[in-house]
Amino acid sequence: xxxxxxxxxxQLLNFSIPARDARGRIARLDxxxxxxxxxxxxxxxxxxxxxxxxxxGALMGGLQKEEGAQLTLQAQTQTGPVRLLVADFKEGxxxxxxxxxxxxxxxxxxxxxxxxxxxxxxxxxxFETGKGQRYQxxxxxxxxxxxEACEHYFLQSEQIPTLVRLxxxxxxxxxxxxxxxxxxxxxxxxxxxxxxxxxxxxxWEHIEALGGSLSHAExxxxxxxxxxxxxxxxxxxxxxxxxxxxxxxxGCRCTVEHYDEVVSRFPEGERDAMRNGQGHIVVDCAFCSRxxxxxx
Length: 296
Hints:
By secondary structure, this protein is α+β, with helices and mostly antiparallel strands. It is built from 9 helices and 13 strands. The protein is globular and about 70 Å long.
C-alpha cells in the first residue's frame, strides 16, 4: 500500500486498485451526523435513514475531483411515512434533511426497510461540476436499503458496477457511522470510455467478493483506521493507491446574503406578499432549522 495516511473519524479516504480497474471511497462520520440530526427532533427510523444518506453523500460526493463540485442525493414519494430525504456534499461540507409523517411512522417497526419508509418513489442523484455543469439521473426507489438503491442507480443510470457497505450505530445519544463505496471502471477513471464495465467481469467479481466481506463492526470501529480496513480487504493485490480525501464537516450554506440575492429576483408585488405582520420577509432553512430575516 502506498501513500500511508492515518484517518479515523469525519474523514474521507480515496483508494484505487489499478490492476483490477477498481476505485473506492471510505468515510467515517460521528460529529457530522450528530450536528445534522440536532437540527430537528427526528424519530429513530428517520435518524438512521438520514445518517445513511449523509454517508452516501460523502462517498458519492468524494468521487468528484473538481474544486467547487457538488453532489445532491434526493429520495421522494407521495405515499410513504418519509416524504422527502435530501443530503448533499460540497468540498467536504455535508448537510441533510428529512420530511416525514410522524403518525404514519408509528407502525413501521424498529428496523424498517426502505419500502416501509417510502412505499414507492424515486431516487435522484445530481452531480454539479465546479464549472456549473449539471448532470442528473433519476431511477425508481428500489432495494431493501438506501445503499442498495444507490447501487441500482449506478448500474442503471451510469452502467457502473458498484458495491456499497454501510454500518450505523446509535448508542447513548451518539452515532458512529462508516461506509465504503467500491466501483469497477475498466479502461480508466481518467475520461476514457468504459469498454468492459459489467457485473460478471472477472476482475469485478474478485473485488466485489473481497469488498463484500467487510463487516459492519469493522466499518464502525473507531480504533481501526480506514487504511487498515483497506489493507485487510485487499492486501494480496499487486498495488493499492491511497489518497487522503476531504475532511468532513456539517455545512449549511444558508446566509442572509444568499437569501437576499434569491428573493430580490422576485417582482416587488410578490415580495410584498411574502412579508409578515411586522413587514419582514423571513426565510426558514430546513437544513439547519434557523430563521433568516432578510434585508429587503
